[in-house]
Amino acid sequence: MSILEKLKDLGTVRQQDNIIKVFTRPSKIREVVKRVRELGYDTILTISVIDVPGKGIFVIRYVFSRRSMDNRGMRIVVYVKVSRDRAEVPTISDIYMFADYLERECSEMYGVRFVGNERCRGTFFLDRSLEGVFPHRKA
Asked: CATH code at 93?
């Protein structure tokens, strides 16, 4: 069974060159990430937030790879849309330890709440006087 087939029950899955894209809902993110881990993708490269104020959403993008070279550089990229007004998604920091740092950055810069990650409080990168100000949000 291919990687695409192993992920298709969790959202919309497409392959473009060496990237497998998975589009899923916030309620499925933990299940998708666990499956990605089971498929041998042992490294999370980044979590980023794409701000789309005209549509009132954030798109949260997770990028995974394998340390081994047997996959020829294949990446899995997972996309989740959330409302800018209620920007919440479950944490994956207990599945990938480095995700803690990435979630904290997204939380502070955009105001996205990673439910279950208690370390996403206060300021991590910014001066305390900027708490509650999200410098990367578009107007």
From this structure: 3.30.460.80
State the residue range of the domain holding 46: 3-128
Predicted confidence (pLDDT) per residue in 99-111, tens digit: 999 999 999 889 9
Q: Which two tokens stand for residue 30?
A: 């933990």
* Residues 62 and 47: beta-carbon distance below 8 Å: yes
Which segments within the chain are labelled E, that is strand? 12-16, 19-24, 43-52, 57-65, 75-83, 88-90, 113-115
The number of distinct structural domains making up the chain is 1
H-state helical runs in the chain: 3-7, 29-38, 99-110
Structure confidence at residue 125 as a pLDDT band (50, 70, 90): low
134 domain-assigned: no
